[in-house]
Fold this sequence. Notes:
It comes from Scylla paramamosain. GO terms for molecular function: DNA binding; protein heterodimerization activity; structural constituent of chromatin. Keywords: Chromosome, DNA-binding, Nucleosome core, Nucleus. The structure is a single chain. This protein has 64 residues and is mainly alpha-helical. The chain has a single domain (8-62), classed as Histone, subunit A (Orthogonal Bundle), CATH 1.10.20.10. 70% of the residues lie in helices and 0% in strands. The chain has two helices and no strands. It has helices at 8-27, 38-62. Helix 1 packs across helix 2. The chain is flat and about 45 Å long.
Amino acid sequence: VKGKSKSRSVVLDSSSRSAGIHRLLRKGNYAERVGAGAPVYLAAVMEYLAAEVLELAGNAAHHT
């Protein structure tokens, strides 16, 4: 039994974002080696921070 189908962009979104971050971490000379989990963790942190900033901006816009 198959679940609800997902578009390719939804499935590849997080992995492609992590791949881009991994490339930037390697090219940026931040460290000699970059672990496989580092770009995934960094993508999650950036997504969380963006959500927090957008929530605060929405609250500020709502109260003005």
